Amino acid sequence: MDTDDLIATLAADAAPVRKGAVWRRWALAVLLALAISAVVMTLGWGVRPDLHHAMRTSPFWMKGGYTLALGVAGLLIVERAGRPGVRLGWGVALAGAAVVTILALAAHELMGMPMAGWRADMMGQSAQVCPWRILAISAPVFVIAMLTLRWMAPTRPAVAGAAAGLLAGGLGATVYGLHCQETAAAFTAVWYTLGMALWPLVGALIGRRLLRW
Hints:
Layout: H1 3-12, H2 21-44, H3 51-54, H4 58-81, H5 90-111, H6 118-123, H7 130-151, H8 157-176, H9 185-210
């Protein structure tokens, strides 16, 4: 049997993928991951007691908007990175815009106070634990995202792994925001960003091996 006959034989029983199947798979994966992460956060640290009041304040939505934007950017990138020959699209621009925005807000905040108060503003009350809690809460999202990628056909495994990490970090940090009571943009720019950056680094490293086919 020559190559053409082999290809024809393998393709004979292949059924077309239903329209929207990829996005349905990712939607289910994200919902499952968010549910698990919410349980991890609730059992580990609990929901902040003043959440109802906090949701009426701009710092709460500043943090949530930043982290959710990075999570959405990760989802857009990972969905495209999981398909051969597809450009990464608007996800990269969204991630860049989110980072630039939080840095601008942090700079504006710091410029409005004496330099003596900068350290306290950036460190808050939970700088030492914030990145690690985000890392822990994001873990279920990362695992499920990587398993979903294994179902796809990424030809850029390091990029796909990093995008899965960005998705995990962004969604995990958004969930963590339901517990965290820090309000400073500078704190968010430093410690939330650090927590969200850890899984993309891990994803890029292990994606080279786990996502090869």
